[in-house]
Amino acid sequence: GNAGSLANAREMSDKALGVMRDNMTMLAERDSKLHELQDKSVAFQSTSQKFQRSTVTLGWKTRWQQYRLYAWISALVVWGTLLLIFRHHLLPYLIISSAI
Fold first, then answer.
1. Are 93 and 83 in contact (CB under 8 A)?
2. Could you tell me which residues come within 8 angstroms of residue 39 by beta carbon, excluding any fewer than 6 positions away?
3. Is a pLDDT exceeding 90 seen at residue 44?
4. What residues contact 93, with CB distance under 8 A and at least 6 apart?
5. Are the C-beta atoms of 59 and 77 separated by less than 8 Å?
6. Does position 61 have pLDDT exceeding 90, yes or no?
7. Does the reported pTM lie above 0.90?
8. Please, what is the Cα angle at 81 between 75 and 87, to 5 degrees?
9. What is residue 69's three-state secondary structure?
10. How far is CA 71 from the centre of its chain?
11. Long-range contact list for 15-21, CB < 8 A, 24+ apart?
């Protein structure tokens, strides 16, 4: 009786300890996976911020190129208009416009 119940209690205790060890192992694995996920999240956030900065920079560069193109087209239109106006004085106009 008494030895059997002691053996039974020891067996249940061993099973409980086994379950606790398994739970501790799973908890450690889960903790490791959570840390990996957090590291990946931080890396993704950093990459996202770099991408956002490069997108803004690219947007400014593209806009600046458009403004430069508009400025060149406007300058050519003004030059062509002035050429038509001063077509009777073509040589002095060309000399002055080439100096500018």
1. yes
2. none
3. yes
4. 82, 83, 86
5. no
6. yes
7. no
8. 125
9. helix
10. 32
11. none
User: Nearest 5°: CA angle at 73, between 68 and 77?
Assistant: 145
- Percentage of the chain beyond pLDDT 70 is 99
For the chain, the maximum distance between any two Cα atoms, rounded to a whole number of angstroms, is: 130
CA dihedral 32, 37, 39, 44 (to 10 degrees): 170
Which pLDDT band, with edges at 50, 70 and 90, does 39 fall under?
very high
Question: Which single residue is written with the structure tokens 């087209």?
Answer: 73
Structure tokens at 89: 């004085």
Please state whether 94 falls in left (phi above 0), alpha (psi between -120 and 50) or beta: alpha
**Amino acid, single-letter form, for residue 30:** R
Mean pLDDT score, 30-58? 95
